[in-house]
Every structure is written in C-alpha cells, then in structure tokens.
Specification:
mainly alpha; about 75% helix; flat
C-alpha cells in the first residue's frame, strides 16, 4: 500500500461528505460535486490496495448517482 494514495483518498472522501452537507449558504446537497470526489477516492483506494474502502467509496458514489436521477 502506498501511504500517499491512502491519504489522498481519505481527503477526497472528506471533500465528498462535505459536499453533501447542508447549511446556511448551501440549502441542497451537491451530489454532482460529491460524486466527483467519491470517484477519485475510490480509484485512489483501489491503487493503494484498500479494496474494502474502495467498495465503500463506490457505494457512496452510487447513492449520489441515484439521488441525481430522482
């Protein structure tokens, strides 16, 4: 496992979760932005060999795609 890929992947997961949060200035979740970050995280996890974390990132990606199509 390459540590650089893991830290970058974890940063992308945090960015993706941040896109889904709502607040005073963001009234609706940004599923499009979150899907971009989750996709990057999943690919980085795969490169690092962290397949269970890659699966979790792909699950989040699928939920974002589902929410965009509703």
């Amino acid at each position: 496992m390459r540590r650089g890929d893991l830290t970058e992947a974890q940063k992308e997961m945090v960015k993706g979760q941040k896109c889904l949060k709502t607040g005073l200035f963001q009234w609706h979740p940004d599923h499009s932005g979150a899907s971009m970050h989750f996709d990057a995280a999943a690919k980085a996890f795969q490169l690092a060999g962290a397949y269970s974390q890659a699966t979790a990132a792909y699950e989040q990606l699928g939920l974002c795609y589902k929410a965009m199509n509703e």
